[in-house]
Model the fold of this input.
Amino acid sequence: MIELDQVAMSYGGGELLGDISLTLSPGSFHFLTGPSGAGKTTFLKLCYGALIPTAGHVRMFGADVRDMSRDDVALARRRIGVVHQDVQFLDHLPVADNVALPLIVSGRDRSDESENLSELLNWVGLSKRAGALPAELSGGERQRAALARAVIMSPEVILADEPTGNIDWEMSQRLLQLLVELNRMGKTIMIATHDMNLIRAAKSQVQARVLRISQRRLQTAGADL
Amino acid sequence: MDLSRITGFLAGDVQADRLVPPTGFTARLTVFAAGAMAFLTVFALALSLATGRLADRWSDELARASTLRISAPLDQRAAQTAAALRVLETTPGVASARALSDEEQRALLEPWFGPDLPVEALPIPQLIEVIEDETGYDAAGLRLRLSAEVPGAVLDDHTRWRRPLVEAADRLRLLGWLSIALIGATTAAMITLAAQAALAANAQVIAVLRLVGARDAYIARAFVRRFTLRALGGAAAGTALGMIAVLILPAEQAEASFLTGLGFQGWHWIWPLAIPPLGAAVAFAATRHAAHRTLRELS
Done:
């Protein structure tokens, strides 16, 4: 689905990532870990076409990112749900509209999907908060809303950048539960996190591969976790 | 362009419209700028059309009219006038010749001497209006004949003062059109600035829309539509006010025909109605250009 082939990424002369090859196959569950600033967010951005690698090839659904037009990238993003680290919402619209944003921008009629939307809000436990503005939500609620927005288009791949970054353990568990459920539905999941407890909790439930970015290279972490 | 696409664009997409937060201040500035520019355009248009009419009239009517002045002692004036008229009647190229009546001569002098001027008692030359036909007459030949038969006659074929006037009117008309072009360019510049400010203020919104898979055209449309509608509304209001202002200008009078002639006549009233759609088109192009340029810079 997403393939990285000897990818390197440099910023202003310094190489942040190098010689990275990885294939995200359908239904797989990956964790991406590594120290802060190691390039986890950059890695995810390469995966959804927000960055073009300085060397090597990134292929989204078979197409090389470098050959894709801006519209091609936009269309590919509808098949990839992204939970951003700094959950980005439109602050003037209520939660329900923010969650439905991918539907709106892809020109689908929201009224056809209203049942899906309320079901989804129920699933992430935000039914009662549907009319609230993003600024009125707690950290955990925002993360769950971001997850709901990431999955509303029923994407094939879900990329989550520190989804449990600023929420308590109980909420992290709930969020993980949602991602595990999605994986059981056949979605490909990639979670960037430095929360080892989260990874351990997940490993008891799914077959998860753990990748580590260390010294600019991507390594498969041992089974000791 | 496909008409249904235009109406669809103007009707808009309620969902898409809400994605960009409303911006009160820039919106009002855009409407005001478009309105003021449309108001000015109405006057520039009126000026161009009025001077155009003037130039046409001068070059057309006056080109075919000339004046014969009979300066003779009072007792010979009538005889010389009759002689001159006889000469003119037999001159090829003259369609008609007519001696101005005392009343008409008095009317001509009234602005300078006031009413109740005893024209009959004064040694004022008699004027004869000569109208040419299509071919025109030979001025030099006519002068020769007149000097032989009517010694007191002086032919003035108007070219001396007509040409600079027509030239001035033409120049004025050109300036009017140039003003309209400048106003259009200024409108485009102001709307581009406003659109760019709005795009910069909404960089976060645009980034979020891109991340969730919105295509550039979709994002651009939300902005372009807004600015086009604002320009259309502002220009419509400005045009309406401008047309009312032109309408209540003093009506055309003989005393100051140029100044009071500034306005629209007949079907020319249609012209200003083109200003709002043109203003909207300028806004559409300017915002579209600005939006696509801004979007290309984002990932």
About this structure: DSSP finds twelve helices and four strands in chain B. Chain B touches chain A through 22 residues (CB under 8 Å). The longest helix of chain B spans residues 159-201.
